[in-house]
Design a protein that fits this description.
The chain is of the alpha/beta class. The chain contains 10 helices and 11 strands. Strand 10, helix 8 and strand 11 form a beta-alpha-beta unit. It is globular, with a radius of gyration of 18 Å.
Length: 337
């Protein structure tokens, strides 16, 4: 698998204590290097203003630039809310969005999978508001860049512990969104009634209990949901908001699921669905995951699953899906074709 990475990603918030630390990408990069999984490395580039503006209005991009410039060598908050910045944050966030676009371009060129090992993450960044640890909506920008350049459809798959409210806000015009996430948990969105089916895009949310969901039901939920959603929207590209904070022991997440085991199973499923609908084209964009050793092993499991020779991963027990989640999936499955 192609991995897109840039040393610039380690500059954001490097001088302060923060959960979204440079160690997240540096630790993963070192683990991949040691495991021999970093062979097909690509360098990121900056996203242009026009590319950022596929999701974010120019006024928001300029606000981020001004807020960062005003900080000097201090840390502070983005003026739209709770996102911590320092003097490097605009440059790093622009390069993170660009890294996601490079990964998309390589996936399209090779008809294979690419992993954008980027930070800051992006799925909470709404069009005109940064939130959480997110400044620009990396996955959504890559998806819209694909649609703009090819005229195809993109499906964003988000398995992060937290709901990708920013990505959902960018779903439109050929870009669809499907998510599992803890509910209610930050950002308190993605409830069971937040569903939409339009002519060329859809939004599907499958909220999960905040803790102790478990590996088997987590994987089974996705094995039931993803093929059905893909059948309806028929994506030409799958973009994955790859947040591994669902893993047991994560300090800001934890669905009681084994991180690497679930990561491998989900990647096998995504590979199968991509093979059927998008000619194998998959882009992973790093989102959450704050226990660095577990995060590193989970990313490695994702990459190994795409390199595996078998066409189909192991099936989880569909009866492990709890009634509440089965009910949501049944409602989606009953949508008119």
């Amino acid at each position: 698998m192609i991995v897109v990475y840039d040393e610039l990603y380690t500059r954001h918030l490097a001088q302060i204590e923060h959960l979204e630390s440079p160690d997240r990408v540096a630790g993963v990069a070192q683990h991949l290097q040691d495991a021999g999984l970093f062979g097909a490395r690509e360098t990121a580039r900056d996203a242009s203003n026009a590319e950022l503006e596929l999701v974010h209005p120019a006024s928001y991009v300029e606000r981020v630039r001004r807020d960062v410039a005003a900080l000097g060598d201090r840390a502070g908050y983005l003026s739209t809310g709770d996102t911590v910045l320092d003097g490097s944050s605009f440059d790093v966030a622009r390069r993170a969005a660009g890294g996601a676009i490079v990964a998309m371009e390589r996936a399209v060129e090779t008809e294979g999978a690419a992993f954008a090992l980027v930070r800051p993450p992006g799925h909470h960044a709404e069009p005109a508001r940064g939130m959480g640890f997110c400044i620009f909506a990396n996955a959504a920008i890559a998806a819209h860049a694909f649609v703009a350049t090819t005229g195809g459809r993109a499906l964003i798959v988000d398995f992060d512990y937290h709901h990708g409210n920013g990505t959902q806000a960018a779903a439109r015009n050929g870009v669809s969104f499907v998510s599992t996430h803890a509910y209610p948990a930050y950002p308190m969105t993605g409830g069971p009634n937040e569903q939409a089916l339009r002519d060329d895009w859809a939004v599907v949310n499958v909220p999960l209990p905040p803790h102790s969901y478990g590996t088997e039901p987590f994987v089974a939920t996705w094995q039931r949901a993803l093929p059905e959603i893909a059948r309806r929207v028929r994506p030409d590209l799958i973009v994955v908001s790859a947040g591994y904070d669902y893993a047991t022991g994560d300090p800001v997440g934890d669905l009681g699921a084994d991180g690497p085991q679930a990561a491998g199973a989900l990647a096998s499923l995504i590979r199968e669905v991509a093979s059927e609908y998008s000619r194998g084209r998959v882009v992973y964009c790093l989102e959450g995951g704050y226990d660095v050793p577990t995060l590193a092993r989970s990313v490695a499991a994702t990459i190994r699953a795409h390199a595996a020779a078998s066409a189909q991963g192991e099936r989880a027990d569909p009866h492990a899906i709890p009634v509440a989640q089965r009910t949501i999936l049944e409602r989606v499955e009953a949508w008119p074709s």
